[in-house]
Amino acid sequence: MDLGIRGRTALVCAASKGLGRACAEALAAEGVNLVLTARRSDLLEQVAASIRQKFSVTVAAASGDITTEAGRAAALSACPRPDILVNNAGGPPVGDWHSFEREQWLAAADSNMVAAIMMIRAVIDGMAERKFGRIINITSAMVKQPHAALSLSVAARIGLTGFTKAIAAQYVGANVTINSLLPEQFETDRLRSNIQKLTAKSGRTLDEEVAASAASSPAKRMGRVEEFGAVCAFYCSAHAGYLTGQNVMLDGGRYPAVF
């Protein structure tokens, strides 16, 4: 299927690895030009060069922390008029919610809710004027199936989810959509780090814990980042203009409810 977005420009946040990189590569495979952001400039430049060579699209790198004002300014300076925005940022620490202080709750909200809102605010009206826009928020399956150990992430990401649902209907008439992708267990460094922290006292190795976690899924495996990227690309496509304000679970069937 031709997704109808060849020649468009996407701004992809936290794109140097994991789910962000997978989304960038899936869009590039459809002929989308990219501006990538991430904190590590060396790694980001390597990824940009790799995607540029593999897919023959224009790829620019704008290093910076997207959760800061300076990082957002750098990204928007490099890409002030994106057709596609993929919001993404690393999650906050895991642990016992009793142990988190006020500053940690505020930091989580700033990184995983407010940063994305500021990016949306910066680009969405321009998208509406041009009659095309696709905004994807990479959040978490924990938005629909919360886990106490991920309480910082849950609180911040649910806030972002509510905000985007509140405004999505205002823009769909201008062919601008906002949707969220909710990953659970995908093969990323972040997942391995979380598993290691949550099972530190189990007595098993990290690889054993990862294998046990994968086996507990109805799919009997972890998700592949390429699968995630493909879903992102479709939701950014010309064919997805009637689909907005949705939260799409990518969890291998683990979520038990109907809605």
UniProtKB/TrEMBL annotation:
Pfam families: adh_short (PF00106). InterPro entries: NAD(P)-bd_dom_sf, SDR, SDR_fam. It comes from the Bacteria. SUPFAM superfamilies: NAD(P)-binding Rossmann-fold domains (SSF51735). Belongs to the short-chain dehydrogenases/reductases (SDR) family. PANTHER family: 3-OXOACYL-(ACYL-CARRIER-PROTEIN) REDUCTASE, NADPH-DEPENDENT REDUCTASE BACG. This is SDR family NAD(P)-dependent oxidoreductase. The lineage of its organism: Bacteria, Pseudomonadati, Pseudomonadota, Alphaproteobacteria, Hyphomicrobiales.
